[in-house]
Write a structure and sequence with these properties.
About 35% of the residues lie in helices and about 20% in strands. The protein has a six-stranded mixed β-sheet with strand order 1-2-4-3-5-6, with helices on both faces. The longest helix has about 30 residues. The chain starts with a strand and ends in a 14-residue tail after the last helix.
Length: about 190
């Protein structure tokens, strides 16, 4: 299986970010790890074995990334506004820095041109991030596999609600809850 490791400076985050790409062509997919996870969890948890048939057949090109959960969702002792602003910087890193690079790589590998849609995949808090990105940016993301996510910011931010927390809480913004109060829905 072809793999590439990248470590590049993110202007949005002001630090180095790491990722690993698996495959030699196909539909681009971004894997977001579970809470506080790292890009290498995709391989360490044997996700490469599960996805191997599609990776090796050139059907998917998977980019496993890092999060900033330890600074944001998993850091309740820090100021909530700072944490959600940091999370927004991570969102900008994904949408403005990672997506263009992954699209260029997919175009190069596949002989494509243009702006291929990207699928998002995550489990647990990674699913939360994937769903949030998918719903917020349908211009970039056209597929979603979100397993066992929590789709409310209550998990990471408790009762704190402001404009940025609201726009990162799918259960609130998809439910049309303009006040930011809990929305109860039956699934």
């Amino acid at each position: 299986m072809q793999t590439q490791y990248f470590k590049e400076y993110s202007p949005a985050l002001g630090r180095q970010m790491e990722c690993k790409v698996y495959g030699h062509g196909g539909r681009p997919v971004i894997f977001i790890p579970c809470q506080d996870g790292r890009f290498y969890d995709f391989e360490n948890f044997h996700m490469t074995d599960v996805w191997a048939p599609w990776i090796e057949n050139g059907e998917v090109l998977i980019c496993a990334i890092d999060t900033v959960d330890s600074e944001t969702w998993s850091n309740p002792m820090s100021d909530a506004r700072w944490r959600i602003e940091r999370y927004e910087q991570w969102i900008t890193h994904i949408t403005d820095e990672l997506v263009p690079s992954l699209r260029n790589l997919a175009n190069d590998y596949n002989g494509w041109s243009g702006y291929p849609g990207i699928m998002l995949f995550g489990c647990s808090l990674g699913a939360t991030h994937a769903a949030n990105l998918y719903f917020r940016r349908p211009d970039l993301f056209d597929g979603l596999l979100a397993l066992s996510g929590l789709y409310s910011t209550d998990y990471g931010f408790g009762n704190y609600m402001d404009d940025l927390v609201y726009q990162n809480s799918p259960i609130h913004y998809l439910g049309g809850d303009a006040q930011g109060s809990p929305v109860h829905t039956a699934l």
